[in-house]
Amino acid sequence: MLVFLLITEKNEQGDSGQIKNNNAGNDEGTSICGEYLMGNIGLGACQVETNFTDTDNLDNNAKVRTYSAEYQLGGGMKVGVTYFDQEQTANNKTMTDVDGIISRLAVGF
């Protein structure tokens, strides 16, 4: 069995939910995710970005990227690993910049 899945989303909310004419807005985001499955192997990647400009005209951004690999051992058991990178800024200052790796063993019944 061979499966390829690609999902893209984009949102633009402008100044939705903000007081009119307070200079805030540009609330937007995008996500692009994909997954490839072939036999017992699965590979995936995803990137999500958001941006908002506050009333002082400063940017507030977030970006998360993940890359994953999975192997199905059989009998409902899977092993996998995911690498992630997360970056966030608030008022043009870096608040979060972290990378990590997560491994997992899943057992299904």
Please give a quick description of this structure.
With 109 residues, this protein is mainly beta. Helices cover 0% and strands 78% of the residues.
Give a topology summary:
Layout: E1 2-14, E2 25-38, E3 41-53, E4 59-74, E5 77-90, E6 93-107
Could you explain how this protein is built, in words?
The chain has one domain. 0% of the residues lie in helices and 78% in strands. The protein contains no helices and 6 strands. A 6-stranded antiparallel beta sheet has the order 1-2-3-4-5-6, with no helix packed on it.
Q: Percentage of helical residues?
A: under 10%
Report the end-to-end length measured between terminal Cα atoms.
Answer: 22 Å
State mean pLDDT (0 to 100 scale): 87
Give the biggest beta sheet: 6 strands, antiparallel
Structural class determined from secondary elements = mainly beta
Q: Rough shape?
A: elongated
What attributes characterize this protein structure?
mainly beta; elongated; 0% helix; 109 residues
